[in-house]
Amino acid sequence: GENVEQHPSTLSVQEGDSAVIKCTYSDSASNYFPWYKQELGKRPQLIIDIRSNVGEKKDQRIAVTLNKTAKHFSLHITETQPEDSAVYFCAESFSGGGADGLTFGKGTHLIIQP
Amino acid sequence: DAGVIQSPRHEVTEMGQEVTLRCKPISGHNSLFWYRQTMMRGLELLIYFNNNVPIDDSGMPEDRFSAKMPNASFSTLKIQPSEPRDSAVYFCASSLGHRGYEQYFGPGTRLTVT
User: Fold this and answer.
1) Burial class (CB in 10 A: 0-12, 13-18, 19+), B2
2) Which residue of A39, A42, A43 to mutate against B (max B Cβ within 10 Å)?
3) Which of B42, B101, B108 lies nearest to residue A98, judging by beta carbons?
4) Exposed (0-12), middle (13-18) or buried (19+): which is B110, by Cβ within 10 Å?
């Protein structure tokens, strides 16, 4: 079955620095890779996603890169701010669209040090 | 938009009791997902429906768990009998299915089984 490995489990960076979280997956049929942010006690919320026909996508301070050959994808946050502190989850599915369940990584607790 | 609605938000019950969790997806969405979140196992897909039809229930832990979607605007997840290891946050999510990728999560139901 599907398997998603996420690293690191905890990441502490100074405010203003960049943060990178990495995920690997096992199924070459996977074609959709979202990233969710979850604040304490809240629901997961999508922050960015990428599909298998794209290698990189950027939205302001957040970017995601995908390497299908190596089966890994990464989240990059630049100029980190205190409000970026949260748990981040990568996920994958092999649907056509949102009609397939997501397999999540175990999460990365991002801590932004003032 | 009201977003995905879940009830109850919190449920405390004794071992052996029946528990029913409820979900109302976003209007117009035709895919619905049930996830469970625990510290040990992270976010896990339990079951999902497309156009009210169950597609994949391989994530349902055992026969004590069942889910239904009698119409496009309502779904239930039932645990009978409940056990302490079922304690978790249960999230419902919905999406546009094949017409869109993003899954929108509800606020979750925090279940405690004593």
Assistant:
1) exposed
2) A43
3) B101
4) middle
Residue keyed to tokens 């979140």: B37
CB pair distance less than 8 Å for A100 and B48: yes
Closest Cα partner for B24 from B89, B90, B69?
B69
Give SS3 for B98: helix
Q: Does A97 sit within 8 Å of B99, measured CB to CB? A: yes
pLDDT of residue B2: 83
Q: Which two tokens stand for residue A80?
A: 């980190």
DSSP state of B100: -
Peptide bond into A114 cis (omega under 30): no
* Token pair of B101 as six digits: 């990728």
Residue spans of chain B under pLDDT 50? none
The DSSP line for B9-34 is SEEEE-TT--EEEEEEPPTT--EEEE
Each residue's pLDDT tens digit, A94-104: 865 678 899 99
